[in-house]
Amino acid sequence: MAITINYYPKNVKRFSTGLGQDVGSLRSMIDMLQVFIIDSPIQNKVKEKMNWQFGDNPELKETILSKLSTTPVQLTTDELASEYPKKTGIPATWKIKSVLPAIMDGQSIAKNEDGSTPTNPDGDTFKTPMRAWPIRNFFSSAIGLGLLNWNRINGNISITTLGEQLATASHSESEELTNEELTILQLSFMSYPYAVAFLKSLEDSKEGLNKFQLGESFGFAGEAGFTSFGEELYVSALTEAYEDGDRARIKKIKSNWESTSDKYIRGIASLLSKLKLISIVDQLYSYESPKTGRTSHFSLPAYKLTGYGRENLGIALGRSKHKRTTKNVTWDMLATKGNVVYTRTVRALILMELDNSSGLTADQIATRINENKVNKMPIFEGATVTPEEISDHINGLNGIGIQIDKNANNKYVLKDPIQDFEIPITASELPKKDNVQRQQDELRPLLKHVDHRYLQLVELALDSSQNSEYSMLESMTMELLLTHLDFDGASLGGASKPDGIAWDKDGNFLIVDTKAYDNGYSLAGNTDKVARYIDDVRAKDPNRASTWWTQVPESLNVDDNLSFMYVSGSFTGNYQRLLKDLRARTNARGGLTTVEKLLLTSEAYLAKSGYGHTQLLNDWTDDNIDHSEYYDKIVNQI
User: Fold this and answer.
1) What percent of the chain has pLDDT over 90?
2) What positions does the domain FokI cleavage occupy (predicted)?
């Protein structure tokens, strides 16, 4: 094995490999591989369709046809999957400008710009080509599976030896795989770290795990792209919606409460089931309707390891005299969101250092990485990789299926052989830590009892670009309170509802409002909602738009023991005056808590027996809002 550092003075090609979503058809993946086999049935079909379906660019057409006839067949990502832009108000064009749309169909029947229906040379209607983005997921996954190669310098994609074996295996026209195809694909997936991690997570579960249970440890759990909604919060919210008969809420939860990690899990599960490595079963949950008193059920898909799955996992892990499979790893699959250049590079260097040793401590790995140079310059100029950071990254690498054990001497040992790959360092984009990572670095060594997956709160609170990030900030905040800080309550969300509510055995009641803003959250014009929530729970008026307060125990004294808390990355504007005004209007204590403060106070609560809910709520609702006002005080209590 060789993991090499390659320096590029200019930008090179970038392409995320290894984790493609929406790859539902293994038959389509095999057809895609046949494009690289000269005169294969699929390649001939491509050439035939290009004769009448290719757009008005004869030079590009001839270039592609020439490449399809040249050994080895090498095509760029654009030549494989690019498309004409869709014009507003008219159907997407059925003309193609790349190879794979010729064999991958979309859902709708093709239409001309005037709405009429075109026909192919045989006089039949046909479907609009699949869009370029989902097509790219197919060859992204094929690269991760070791079926295709991708050249970073020129962007060419070509078929591997294993890919050629699959493309030329005995073939079926249906989705059902032949025995030869099944054998090759099972071998390929046992070299794919994410698939191994998936199967390994199911090994000890007799009843199976759903995507939320798997998401607790799958992949780089807790970071951007791998933050899963907690099962308890999801099931609780869905149960309440079913109990209320709130169909709109049920639909919203099912569609919105799914992170990227959950989608990855669902997508991989679909493929593993087609390979007979897992089975998909219903996981039942019961609820009682308050209107009828009847007990009903809803279900979530759960995944169980099959006999084939257990056998193949044993091969992947080198059990029963099997040799461990060589795992396919690319630099590009080592992070999906956030500051990916830095994160991918650190993780790749960890693998490189471990491969070149019989075992290293976190301190030794950090020292070696910080001493690495490229082009006579430190790789991480101006940044220091810490031992605590190394340990967290290793936990993540284990989470994607690369086994790194810790021995009795606190040394990490890489157990898996890794396929050769390169670590690209480009002069125009050197790996550097961003502000989020620097804040996480400051917190990481202090959080000895708080799970480090909650460091993702720092990034979520500063990301206001996607609705899913709002939901994840809400979900993870409430998960921390309800799962680790001994509160009862619920994550609510939705129109006319708080993001979350919590209470304890001492009678304290808390309303939580989470805000994701990259430049700081301002209370200006944003206090009326919280005031209305407080009025709702005190008035208990059944005629109001939302009766979320029915979930609050009647024994709680919400007149005297109610608190509210805004949670965000930081706060801006004249927040002290606005906070004081909101407190006076509602006669409730409340505060503004940064995610940094939330994590530090959570650590204090978990670490110190004398730091209970009273102190926790006092710290969340005091006037110490800026970092300089609370940091030293709380750290001294840890």
Assistant:
1) 63
2) 433-625
